[in-house]
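User: Second chain of the day. Same drill as before.
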Amino acid sequence: MVDRKRIVRRQALRENLLAYLFLLPALLAIALVLFYPILNLLVTSFYSSPTLSHPSQFIGLKNYVAVLTDPIFPTAVRNTFIWTFGVTFGQVLLGIYFALILHQRFPGRWLARVLVIIPWVLPGIVVAVTWRFMYSQDFGLINLALRSVGLGQLAHAWLGDTQTAMISVIIVGIWKGFGFYTLMFLAGMQTIPVELYEAARIDGANDRQQLVSITLPLLRPIMITSTVLGLIWTSNYFEALLVMTGGGPARSTETLPMFIYNTGFSFYRIEEAMAGSNILLIIVLLLLGFYALVVRRINRNADRFQEVG
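Assistant: Same format as last time:
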């Protein structure tokens, strides 16, 4: 019996050999484009910067120590968590809200769905430049609107004040990405059987009870998966921060990607920036590991539900 299994496995391997050969160029391209830069980044972060009189030398973890002991690093980490969780939490809430609205039938629903998706598909640079002009103290649309309705005392340098800069860019991040969650949640709602809602209405359940007992529980796998992916994307996103504030004022909006950018391209400490990139990579890998565990648990629960069914 064992020999027969081995023969079957060898035969299957021979039959798939041609498929593996076709995949080999793609795998080599991925290794060259993706893994080689990461490996080179990791190796270079252990060396010092070359000068005209001294070549680059192996210095171990000194670049990592320099990054971790930088007085701005704790601020960048704190800003990263504020930015990431603030943007993602707002996007999820708005995504659920608009998905519930767009799931209903009303005239012009198709147009509303298109309009909700537009911010998400716009290039990040375009969004950042547009909102930077809107936040302008003298000519920005927001301050002009406040002055036109007699609330000129509320006009403010939104991006120039350390108290309002972070919340201002978080609003932009929420507006930019909530369409993705709307699309995901709307697709999930359309897969929920209508019979569940009909049975709930017969039992006397109102709209809020149906939302809490049917919609949200059945959307949980999509919500968890999209939220974890959103955390990973948002933690690495810095286009809006770079264009709108550059990490200022007084580094109040400087996240880890902005810290790495400024370290490498503003202060020309390239090797320290590489070390900071590897630290950020570790954080992202931890999030990816958490995402893999979540997906595995969701699939396991789905398999159990199918077995019971």
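The domain at 72-308 is CATH 1.10.3720.10 (MetI-like fold).

User: Great, on to the next one.
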